[in-house]
Write a structure and sequence with these properties.
120 residues; mainly beta; six-stranded mixed sheet; four-stranded antiparallel sheet; 10 strands
Length: 120
């Protein structure tokens, strides 16, 4: 079974950048799509970005398109989320999941996530 651990969050000023990592254990990582979600205080968890197992088909939610880039290194069993031009509304806990669905209700278990705080 593949397990995921998110890292790379922090506090950054608006306009700044962060790179999140989603490290996976397990030999079948490269066959799985991976998606990133985020949950801001008082809000529902929402889809952010996803990538296929091959890494050739990234997709994004509209608010982050052009600012965030999802990528993966299957040799390192890691998926990255490069976040540029950060805005205060990007403040949230970010989570990764194995799968292609952008519906958070389809996932049963959530890790601790990594906190991203963007100050204005």
């Amino acid at each position: 079974q593949v397990q995921l651990v998110e890292s790379g969050g922090g506090v950054v000023q608006a306009g700044g950048s962060l790179r999140l990592s989603c490290a996976a254990s397990g030999r079948t990582f490269s066959t799985h799509a991976v998606v990133w979600f985020r949950q801001a205080p008082g809000k529902d968890r929402e889809f952010v970005a996803g990538i296929s197992g091959s890494g050739r088909s990234p997709y994004y939610t509209v608010p982050v398109k052009g600012r965030f880039t999802i990528s993966r290194d299957n040799a390192e069993n890691t998926v990255y989320l490069q976040m540029n031009s950060l805005k205060p509304e990007d403040t949230a806990v970010y989570y990764c999941q194995l799968g292609a669905s952008g519906d958070p209700n389809e996932y049963d278990y959530w890790g601790q996530g990594t906190q991203v705080t963007v100050s204005s």
